[in-house]
Amino acid sequence: MGRKYSRVWLIGAVLALLASCIKNDIPYPVVQLEILGVEGEGFTCAASDIDAKNRVVTLHLDETTDISHVRIDSIRVTDGARASVPLSGTFDLRTRQEIVLSLYQEYAWTLCAEQTIERRFVVEGQIGAAEFDVQRRMAWAKVPMETDLRHVTVKELKLGPEGITTMSPSIEELTSFETYRTVDIRYHDFEERWMLYLEKTDVTVELTRADAWTRVIWLYGQGRPDTRMGFRYRVAGTEEWLEVPSEALTVDGGTFSCCLSGLQPETTYELKAFSDADESPVTERTTDAEEPLTNGGFEEWCTESGIIYPGLTRDGAYWGTGNTGAAVAGVVLTDKTEEVRPGSSGRYAARLESQLAGIAGIGKLAAGNLFIGRYVATRGTNGIVGFGRPFTKRPVALRGWVKYTCGQVTDVGQDLPAGVTVTKGDPDCGIIYVAVGTWTKEKYGVCEQEEGEKLVGTDEVPICIDTRDRTTVFNPNGPDVVAYGELTFDRTVGEWQEFVIPLKYTTTEVVPTHIVLVCSASRYGDYYTGSRESKMWVDDFELIYDVLPEE
């Protein structure tokens, strides 16, 4: 009997020992958990407001929305993800809110809000526009030296959201500004005390800023409202002053601005602002040189190691394509063609063709593409490309010629951008976009690679796009984009068509460091989505530096 129990104990011990030696070597799958969209009342949240790389979602609140009680109907997340907070309800977004998504791993996202409240402070005889310090709740305006500060007429005062703000004292009671005046305002559950100042100045008109580009100069001035205000200019060294036509001016109270166009590159101009008979001191600005787009006619091509490149040599090519990655599958995505646009003096154009890049019918859709930059590497069936080339000029538009065959969508990949839905059979969409910006290799040139290895962009080609990681996809609303413009195609353009893509600038002051230009026969090719029948032809691209006349 004792031996029986001893055997049972021994067997149990062995089983326990074996169990202790067994470990779970099956790794959990890595599932990137994302916020895909936010819907609710009193705000907007576009796809570009979801920063997947830094896991930040920004809501743009209406002026009258209560930032402490933002109504969110739904926060859409990756299927299967669990959230650390309810995905609907009322949120206090005066501070950034953390939302942790979890499944096999955890991903911390941040929800934040931006709210712009238009504020105005205008008194009779004011010079220029009032300035506001929102943090310290201060506002001040400039008035002429002869102004009697004991008897001031406030013409307009708005310190809070339109239609829901109460103010004490009233605008009619604000007459004496010998020191400063305090104003108490209330909206929602907020109470604020503002301080208003008037500052005397002997400057009656001022040229506050002049930003010189290549064939245009952006002028900004301030003077006395209810006077005739504007700008005068001339080429340095000449006698006659020219006046900017009044219809070219934008006037807002005592501030005025214009885009002075029709200028010559690399030329020094003398500039001044005026308000009735008063004139500002003369300011000089020199316009930039006009830089053409390298190989914009797509006349330069070569073939090295069986791969076609849009340049005289592979290493010297200004443009890149996906041909290097597709070559593994024996596919050519982008090639030269003698089917040039009407009237072209060149011999070649470029043809972009979306195709299945695979073997024996197994693979992924690869968009016909052409971009300023270079193809970097291939990882499995995924491509890594570099966008951008050095460029410090500020064109106002891109002009060129295009044809497009719009196929029906044959392939739909995963993880499309937030708000984008594509199904098989839909019309494909082609795109041409151009941007200038201040991207750096340190911020945009790092792509995670296998076994912890990293690919880093260069000073010349700073942006790294890794098709395995959608957080690296080019963001036209990114903080370092100075200007952007695009043209999309959702139907066939059977004959050559000339196009102009205006560049919309976020500022006239910042000088860009690089240019990005991308053509794709399938807009969502980065997500392996599009049609194997889509084709795009492009020819004779050029940068425009002067403002085009309105048709």
Can you describe what's shown?
With 551 residues, the protein is mostly beta strands. It contains three helices and 45 strands. The strands form eleven sheets. Strands 28, 33, 34, 35, 37, 40, 41, 43 and 44 form a nine-stranded antiparallel sheet that branches. Strands 2, 3, 4, 6, 8 and 9 form a six-stranded mixed sheet that branches. It has a five-stranded mixed sheet with strand order 11-12-16-15-14, with no helix packed on it. Strand 31 and strand 32 (362-366) form a beta hairpin. The radius of gyration is 31 Å and the shape is flat. Mean pLDDT is 90; it is low at 1-24.
Short description:
The protein has 3 helices and 45 strands.
Features:
551 residues; mainly beta; nine-stranded antiparallel β-sheet; six-stranded mixed β-sheet; 45 strands; flat; PCMD domain-containing protein; Put_CMD_sf
Indicate the percent of residues in helices.
Answer: under 10%
Q: Please, how many helices?
A: 3
**What is the approximate shape?**
flat
Radius of gyration: 31 Å
Amount of beta strand = 35-45%
The biggest beta sheet is recorded as:
9 strands, antiparallel
Give the helices and strands, then pairings.
Blueprint (H helix, E strand, L loop, with lengths): L1 H20 L13 E6 L2 E2 L5 E2 L4 E6 L8 E8 L4 E2 L5 E3 L5 E6 L3 E10 L4 E4 L3 E7 L4 E7 L9 E5 L7 E3 L11 E8 L2 E12 L4 E7 L4 E6 L6 E7 L6 E2 L6 E3 L2 E6 L7 E8 L2 E2 L3 E4 L15 E3 L2 E3 L9 E2 L2 H4 L7 E4 L11 E5 L1 E5 L2 E5 L2 E11 L2 E6 L1 E2 L6 E9 L24 E8 L3 H4 L1 E3 L5 E3 L6 E4 L14 E9 L3 E10 L1 E2 L8 E7 L14 E10 L7
Parallel strand pairs: 4-9, 12-16
Antiparallel strand pairs: 1-5, 2-4, 3-4, 5-7, 6-8, 8-9, 10-13, 11-12, 14-15, 15-16, 17-18, 18-22, 19-20, 19-23, 21-22, 23-24, 23-25, 26-27, 28-33, 29-30, 30-45, 31-32, 33-34, 33-44, 34-40, 35-44, 36-42, 36-45, 37-41, 37-44, 38-39, 41-43
